[in-house]
Design a protein that fits this description.
By secondary structure, the chain is an alpha/beta fold. It has a single domain, classed as P-loop containing nucleotide triphosphate hydrolases (Rossmann fold). Helices cover 38% and strands 26% of the residues. The protein is built from 9 helices and 11 strands.
Amino acid sequence: MSVMSVSHISKKFGELNVLRDISLQVEKGEVISIIGPSGSGKSTFLRCCTLLEYIDSGSLAYGDLVICKDGQYCPKKVQKEARRHFGLVFQNFNLFPHYSVLRNIMEAPVSVLKRDEDEVREDAMRLLREEGLEDKADAYPWQLSGGQQQRIAIARALALHPDILFFDEPTSALDPELTSGILKVIRQLAVEKMTMVIVTHEIHFARNVSDRIIFMADGVIVEEGPAKALIDTPNNPRTKAFLAKMDERD
C-alpha cells in the first residue's frame, strides 16, 4: 500500500489552473524529487498534499485513510488524523519566533498529538543531539543562523514521527555554504529510508539522492522516471530545455 496517493487532482486560483490532473503514488522508503520552473505548481502541489490548500477535484489518501475523494473532503476530525501522517519543512523555516528551540520542536507533539511531555522532551533533545544543536535548546530562532533554523525545522517535522516528510525548496533561503549542511541532513534521512517528497532546484542533489524525479511545468507532470535516467537522458523536449538551462546557470 502506498504511503500517499493522489489521483487526478486539480487546483485553481480564480481563473488560473495551477494544477491540472496530477496523479502520484509514493511508496514507503521512496525519495521523490519534484523539479521544474517557477510557477509550475510544485509548491501548490505540496500545499494540497499537506492540507494547507484544498483541491478542487481528484482524490488524496494517506495509506487507507481517504482524505478527499472526487473533490469531496472527509470530516475535519479525519483530516486532523491525517496530519499525523506527514511533516512539512518550509523554505523560510516558519519557526515560532516567540518560542525557544526546544518548545518549537515539542509544541505539536504535545499540543496536537497529546503525547506525554517528558517523553516528547526526551525525543526532542535526541533530535537536537543528532543535529549537533543540543546547546541551542533554550535559544530563540532569531539567535540562530539560517542553516541552524532550517535544521531545527527538520527536527520539528521529525518529532511528529511522520510516515512521509515533505520539503518545499529547503535550501532556497540559504547561501551555498549553509545549503550543503541541509542537503547532508536530507541525504542521511534518505539513507535511513525516510519517505520523502522534495521540491528542489538542486538538480545534482536530486539526481543523487532520489529514487524518482518528477518534472512539472504549467501545472502538469511533463515527465517522470528513475532519477539518474531522467536527469541524464530526458525524453521530453521541455525537460531537456529546462535541464540545459539549469546547467548553464551552474
